[in-house]
Amino acid sequence: MSGHANMVTGIVYLPEGDRVVTCSRDQTVRVWHATTGEEEGEPMEHGTLVNCVGVTRDGKRILSGGFDSKLRMWEVETHKLAEVWEGHERTIYSVAISPDGEFVASGDGGGRIVIREAKSGGEIR
């Protein structure tokens, strides 16, 4: 598979297992068919270098974090931006969704970890 114009910084499978989501320093998030290697739809333009990517348990949404200190939530099927969450003051380097899908955790370059409710994006800690 090729299509990113810069370093690939994250990759995760969608739950059904036939597609992967990647993020890159080229400022995009992309969905690929794992067996054919073909890109699905248009790239999602994060707008800054992207360091991490996660997928909700139901496989309907993608989370991406990067140099602008914001988490972006994307719709998998349409590739449309659904939400933007703030709360970090430094570059986001990691994102994870809890096994039950209720919470999102993200970590930044300053050592801060933010836990949020997945449905509302509201910070818990």
From TrEMBL:
This is WD40 repeat-like protein. Keywords: Repeat, WD repeat. Gene3D superfamilies: YVTN repeat-like/Quinoprotein amine dehydrogenase. InterPro entries: WD40/YVTN_repeat-like_dom_sf, WD40_repeat_CS, WD40_repeat_dom_sf, WD40_rpt. It comes from the Eukaryota. WD repeats lie at residues 1-42, 43-84, 85-125.
